Structure formats: C-alpha cells, structure tokens
Amino acid sequence: MSTELLAPLDLAFWHLESAEHPMHLGALAVFDPSPEAGDEEVVNVLAARAAAIPRLRMCVRGVWLPVGGAAWSEDKHFDVRRHVRLVRLPASDFAAEVRELAGELMERPLERGVPPWEMYVLTGAADGSFAVLVKMHHALADGMRAVAIGAGIFDQIAGTRSAAGARRGRVVVPPRSWLPGPRQVAGFARDRFEEFGQAVGIGASVMRASRLDLWADSALAASSSGTRRLATAVLDQAEVLRIRRTVGGTANDVLLATVAGGLRRWIIERGERLPGVDPRALVPVSRRRPGVPPSDGNKLSAYLVGLPVTEPDPWLRLTGVRDAMDRNKSAGPSRGAGAVAVLADQLPSLAHRFGASLAGNAARVLFDVLVTSVPLPRSKLSLAGSPLREIYPMAPLARGQALAVALSTYGGQVHVGLVADGKAVPDADRLAECVKEELAELLAEVLTH
Asked: Is 110 in contact with 135 (CB distance < 8 Å)?
C-alpha cells in the first residue's frame, strides 16, 4: 500500500493524544470454549488474519508537506507478534481479572512508530472460555471502520453476505482523465465555499454552546489521574425494543434515557447532590453513507444531548431524550456545536498540530460524558471455532472527562462498556449495575402507562 496522508480528522485524533489521555478505541470480546483450538492456536489464527489486513501494517510518519501533516506508510519491519500477545490469568475469578487487566491495558498509549493497534488473548478460565482485548488508535479507525476490520478477523457463522458476494454487486467505473474540466473546477470552488460557510456556522455554534456552569461537584468532573477502570453490563435487547414500540422514538433514545437514569441512581447512592444543570452527552454520529463499505479515515459528527438526571420520572426522562434527539436529527449531523468533528475536517494540518492542546481542553466546556453506539453485524461470529458470546466496546476519555459509555447490540443483548477514570470513578462496577436497574424500572414504568 502506498503512502497516504492522514485525513484532517484522523490527524486531529493523532495530535490530541497525551500520556493521560490515550486516543484509542477498544473492545473486549468474550468467546465460548472450543475443543478444536488451544490458546496458542487462537493466537496464531488471530495473528495470521490481522497480518493479512493491509491497514494493520501501516504506521504514521511525519511529512514535510503539508506542514504539520502526517501520512500512513507501510512498516517495513512489521512483526505481528509485537501486536498480538497471549496473557494467562488465574482461573479463580477470571471475569474480574479480565476487567481489571483490560482497564490497565487501556491506560497505556499505543506505541508510536509502529502500526497503532494491539490485541491481547486473555486465557485461564476454568471452563476454557477466553477473551480478546482489541486496541486501535482513533486515527486508524472510527467505530464503523473498526467493525469492518474485525469482520476480516472473525468468522461469520451465518446471516450475512460474504465479502466476495458484496463485491460482485459493485459497478466498475471506467477511469477518467486526472485533468479536471471547467465544471469540475467550478464544482470544487463551490464545495470549498460551502465548507467554509459550514465551518463558520459550526464554530459559532460551539462558542454559543460553551458554558461556564461546569458540573464541578460530580466525580465525573474530577481532574484526570491517567488511570482507567473498565466496567460492563448486559441489557436485554427485547426489553429495549418493547419500550421503543410502546413510547416511540428509537432504541438509541431508550438507551440514552437508561444511561441518564443510571447516572441519577448512582449519583444519589454516592450521597452527591444532583447537579443544578443536566450533564451533556456527546453522542457520535457516523457520516458514512448507508450501504457503502467503510473507507479509510474517520467519518464522524456528533449531537449534544442533555441527560435529564434531575428528572425523577423515568417516563419523562425518556420523552425528554427523545424530543432532544428529534431536534438534533432535524438540524442534521453537520450543524450545531456537536459537529466539532466536521469542523476539524475543515482545518489545515498545522492547526491540528499546534491547536491540539487547546482543542482537547475545550471538550470540558462542551460536554460531560461520551455516549456512543457501535453497530455490529447481525450474524453470529466466532474465532478459531470458538463462538463469540459477548463484546463490549470501549471509547477513549477526552481531557476533562471521567466517563465514556459505549454500547453494542449482539446476540439479542446490548453490551455496555464503561471506561472510567480509575480514581474519579472507582465504583464503576456499581454504575454499571445502576444502568441495568434503570432499564428494569423504565420498562415497569412504561408498562403501567
């Protein structure tokens, strides 16, 4: 694969990273045991498939032009064994050991100068089950791109078209001259003018949305310790869909309201005062076109949504979230303060290099918590003959943030991955339980209306 410049948003993620705030995505996948494969075979299969994906052989190098830019180039000394590792854990409390180690591994920034990803095969469970922790730098992939990479590593047991079948449906476009015609030049100028106007509008929205009434009394506004703690929860997808059918809106509205109620429950249990203003969630939105295979580079925008933790009624929390999301969708993902990622796409490379620190600190005045949904294939997945049982997505923490919530639906369950600052939120496990309890209360409330 030839050298390829990092897209502006990818470059922003690359420069936003610091030792205390590594900018990698993660996923913790738990697999049922298989009599066909031992630990070493699982590692060998994982390593062979990862090495066969060209993007995973690429590292980031500096370039002279554009000034401040960087490019993907093939690592001539690529060794997949530097990236895929086997870790054996005690069998006594395997699940807890996995979560603790996953939190520690998520603390560590990925090594620069080599392809920015790692995978750990975690074994030792008494029943033969095992877990795989995946770390990928956000510059390498957004959620959709990470899922596409995972599709090249895991086996699809049933339910989706093969990659070859998908390719057969593509229309081959004949090559055209690289010289632009008059219409193309005019179109390019018009697009750049529209992008400039869009950037100005987003910048103004960011300024208007910035606030000084920070949620300062909460653990979620604590200063960063650089530590990470991982907690997980499993929700019943059927319950989420039952609520959605009764109330309307989307399944994501139900999940956002569930997170809001879980936070409220957790804050009260900790003896903290409820905030005077509802915390704001940054809800990422993919800008990839439906049905189009994910291309390289991040394609993201986001919505800003108030999480109504001050509202005691679960029903009103849900309707409030649904109304807020409806307003966001009416405006579109490329407008408003949440579209800061779109704004990043309009900035030159030099601005990302020297403005990363300022941009990172600005996150705190825009939102209090990240809540993201990562779509997964509907087919059943496996690795080396071992069926995938659970998969928990993990999102990075921006500066000034102590909690990121990521959700994925697989096998009739919604898997919730909480990544928290280890010192600010040492009771992340209890927060995960509060989210589960909130869904049960919300369902009961909806059924009584």
From this structure: yes
CA dist list (Å): 409 to 210, 237, 315, 414: 33, 7, 23, 4
Torsion of CA 37, 86, 230, 124, to 10 degrees: 60
Cis, peptide link before residue 66, omega less than 30° from 0: yes
What is the percent of the chain where pLDDT is above 70? 75
How many domains is the chain built from?
A: 2
**pLDDT higher than threshold 70 for residue 199:** no
Domain of 113 in residue numbering reads as 4-159
Helix locations, 52-128, DSSP H: 94-107
Q: Which residues lie closer than 8 Å to 322 by C-beta, 6 or more apart?
A: 247, 248, 249, 250, 253, 257
Same domain for 93 and 230, yes or no, is no
Instruction: Please tell me the distance from the alpha carbon of residue 109 to that of residue 396, in angstroms, as a whole number.
Output: 11
pLDDT, tens digit, 9 for 90 and up, residues 320-367: 999 999 988 887 766 655 544 544 554 545 444 444 454 555 556 678
> CB of 225 within 8 A of CB of 424?
yes
Report which secondary-structure segment, H or E, holds 236. strand 228-236
Residue 265 within any structural domain of the chain: yes
Asked if 148 and 230 sit in the same domain, the reply is no
In a domain, 178, yes or no: no
Same domain membership, residue 152 and residue 247: no
pTM of the model: 0.84
DSSP string, 264-306: HHHHHHTTPPPPSS--EEEEEEE-SPTTSPPPSS--EEEEEEE
Evaluate whether residue 366 is within a structural domain. yes
**138 in any annotated domain:** yes
Q: What is the pLDDT of residues 122-163, one digit of tens each?
A: 999 999 999 999 999 988 987 777 878 887 888 865 433 333
